[in-house]
Write a structure and sequence with these properties.
The protein is mainly α. It is about 75% helix and about 5% strand. It has a two-stranded antiparallel ribbon with strand order 1-2. β1 and β2 form a beta hairpin. The longest helix has 24 residues. It is globular. This is FCD domain-containing protein. One of its GO terms (molecular function) is DNA-binding transcription factor activity. Keywords: DNA-binding, Transcription, Transcription regulation.
């Protein structure tokens, strides 16, 4: 059985990710706990976890609201991503000839094919974004560093939200695909002298777009 606080967290996270909450409304813990059929304690645990992960802001004695990202949020999110992903792509490039990395490259090739199909058919930002984060998550998870994976997961909501906003700009989807291909090709070639710069560029371009949108 999944603990009640975990159930509440998953329920609220799903509602947020599927855009069921409004940025203008304050949501009551009491009302939501009744909807879920649980006490306020596990719901409060879930709310505090979501607040720590940047999904929501707690309004004392009232409830919570969706968190509106600001310039600090954008910069911090991309700084974390850049630090983690540049390190990982450098390590993958160093090990480009190993069996483990070649397996990773096959998985990334498949993701790139899926992204290319979306660009040529539905052009769905939501679908493209999902494959986008599969690409990046596999790169992070390659190192099997539990702390890296946990930090990356903690920022996932912000990263997805910012990615969807930047992908709404004309041509950004195609640009993202090309940047992914550049990263993948560089890693396959074991090009350790350029992979850091290429990965960092992929972080900085959408960051600048997101900052301009604020």
């Amino acid at each position: 059985m999944t603990p009640l606080n975990e159930q509440a967290y998953n329920y609220l996270q799903k509602l947020i990710m599927e855009n069921h909450f409004s940025y203008q409304e304050v949501y009551s813990e009491t009302k939501l706990s009744k909807e879920l059929g649980i006490s306020r304690t596990p719901l409060r645990d879930a709310v505090h976890r979501l607040a720590q992960e940047g999904y929501i802001d707690i309004i004392p004695s009232k409830g919570f609201m969706l968190h509106q990202m600001n310039r600090k949020d954008v910069n911090e999110t991309f700084q974390v991503r850049s630090a983690l992903e540049t390190y990982c792509t450098v390590q993958i490039s160093k090990a480009s000839s190993t069996r483990k990395v070649k397996k990773l490259f096959k998985e990334l090739d498949w993701i790139m094919e899926c992204m290319n199909d979306i660009m040529g058919t539905t052009h769905s930002i939501k679908e493209f974004s999902e494959y986008d984060f599969q690409f990046h998550t596999k790169i992070i998870d390659y190192l099997e560093n539990e702390q890296f994976s946990n930090v990356f997961a903690m920022f996932m909501y912000r990263m997805k939200r910012l990615a969807e906003l930047s992908l709404a700009h004309k041509g950004r989807m195609e640009q993202t695909y090309e940047e992914h291909m550049a990263i993948l090709d560089c890693m396959k070639n074991g090009d350790t002298s350029h992979i850091y710069e290429i990965t960092l560029k992929h972080m900085e371009t959408p960051r600048d777009i997101n900052l301009e949108d604020l």
